[in-house]
Structure formats: C-alpha cells, structure tokens
Amino acid sequence: MRGSGLVLMVGLLLAGIWPAVAEAAAIGSVKLCSGAAVVMRGDQVLPAQPGLQLETNDILRTGADGTLGVILRDDTRISLGPGSEVVLDEFLFAPAEGELSLVVRMVRGIVQFISGEISRLAPERVKFETPVGVVGVRGTRFLVKIDGEVAP
Questions:
Q1: CA distance 140 to 114
Q2: Per the CB 3.0–4.6 Å rule, which of 97, 112, 114, 129 could disulfide with 105?
C-alpha cells in the first residue's frame, strides 16, 4: 500500500511538472497562417496552425500561396510571405540570468521582422542572417527579400 501511494504521488507530481517542462521548451508560437505553411522539426513536418508551439532549430517554410506569422516569447514578430524559409537557430530569453540571444537565419523568400525585448535589452545579441549578409538588429522593424537560390 505504501509503495503504491508513493508511485501515485510521483505520477501526480510528474503530471504537474511535465506541462511546465514542455512549455519551457517553447520559444514562441504560430499566430496566423494561410495557404501552404509548415514547421519542420527534425524529421517531422508539422502543418502550421495557430497555437502551434515553436522550438529552437525549427524551420518555418511557406509554399507558393502560403503566409505565416509567429510571435516569440520576447515579443519578436516574424512574418513570412509566399515561398519563404527561415530557421530559428538560437533563442535564449532569461533576462534575470542575463541569458539573451536570438539568431534567425533566412534561406529565401520575403520576411518581415519586428524586434522584441531581446533587442531592447541586448541589441548586440540579435542577428538576422541572410545568404548575402547579417543584419544587426538594434530595436527596429525591417523587410528582407531574397530572390531565387543563392550559392552557399
């Protein structure tokens, strides 16, 4: 009886902790999408839909008729137009510990970026990489368009 009570307590504890652990891994979420839009996570291809939680290293991709809008935990907003792809390479947002970093890598397409809290608190720790250069974000909004394939 005593052992089963302990197992029950551990089970209840884990049930309460697991959502918090899963939530901690989320760096943001999909807010809106239309047309063909997916989030690639490892070997998984997840249909983009509002509320889908995003993680570091996720690849956001839209088809020829797709659009996708996401908001990261620091209130950074990224919008993809048709035929676009970006990678959420790095995201650290723990201001109390001084851990702040955001690296977004654009592969192709058209992307609008509106900076959030990380760029306000540590602008030197935000980078938006493109195939032709790196944008240092200093608390701003900008639009980038990369046509066609660019050689590595």
A1: 6
A2: 129
pTM listed for this prediction: 0.81
pLDDT in tens, 4-13: 444 444 444 4
Summarised one tens digit per residue, pLDDT across range 38-80 is: 999 999 999 999 999 999 999 999 999 999 999 999 999 999 9
121: left (phi over 0), alpha (psi -120 to 50) or beta: alpha
Pairing of strands 99-114, 126-130: parallel
The candidate with the shortest Cα–Cα distance to 44, out of 28, 26, 57, 31, is: 57
DSSP 83-152: T-EEEEEEEEEEGGGTEEEEEEEEEEEEEEEE--HHHHH-GGGEEEEETTEEEEPSS-EEEEEE-S----
